[in-house]
Amino acid sequence: MVRKIITSAAVAVSLMLGVPAVMNAQEAAPTMNIVETAVDAGYFNTLVAAVKAAGLVETLSGDGPFTVFAPTDEAFAEIPEDKLNALIADKEALTAVLTYHVVAGKVMAADVVNLKTAATVNGQSVDIKVMDGKVMIDGAEVIAADVQTTNGVIHVINKVILPDM
C-alpha cells in the first residue's frame, strides 16, 4: 500500500514537472543500463550524444554501479550553441564535464539528501544541499530521482553542472 502511495505521488510530481512517470517510479526490476535508459527516455538526446563523443558509452554501459546526475535536453539548451559545440569538440574537456556528473556507486535519493558533498568520477566533488524541500547538486535542481537501471541510478537535473577546469 505504501509503495502504491509513493508511486502515485511520483506520478503526480512527474506530470507537474513534465517528466514521464516511468522515470520516477519503476515498478519492475530495471532491464536497461544507464545509457539504454537515457536513450529510451527521449529527453537526454544531447547527453547521449555527448557521452558518445567522449567515448564513455562502454563505461556507462558497464557493470558499475554508477549514480548519474543527468541533465535534460532543456538543461543543455541553456548553454550557448557555440560553447556547447566547442565543448563537444574538445574530448578532454567534455570527458571532464561528463564525469563530473557521475558518482561511483549507487546513491539513492534517500542517501543523497543526507550528504553535503559527493566525490565524482572526475575527481572533484559536487555540493549537495536541500533547500525548501528541493535537492540541489551544485545549484542544479533534482527534478526526478531514483531512475533505477541495471548498473546504477539516474537522478535527473535541470542544469549542466561544471567542474573547475
Walk me through this protein's architecture.
The protein has 165 residues and is an alpha+beta fold. The protein has a single domain, classed as FAS1 domain. The protein is built from eight helices and seven strands. Strand 5 (134-137) and strand 6 form a beta hairpin.
Tally of separate helices: 8
Can you identify the CATH superfamily? FAS1 domain
N-to-C span? 48 Å
Helix content: 40-55%
How do the strands of the widest beta sheet line up side by side? 2-1-7-6-5-4-3
- How large is the share of residues in beta strands? 15-25%
User: pLDDT average, as an integer?
Assistant: 86
Element layout with pairings:
Blueprint: H1 2-17, H2 34-41, H3 45-54, H4 57-61, E1 66-71, H5 73-77, H6 81-89, H7 91-99, E2 102-104, H8 109-112, E3 117-119, E4 125-131, E5 134-137, E6 140-149, E7 152-157
Parallel strand pairs: 1-7
Antiparallel strand pairs: 1-2, 3-4, 4-5, 5-6, 6-7
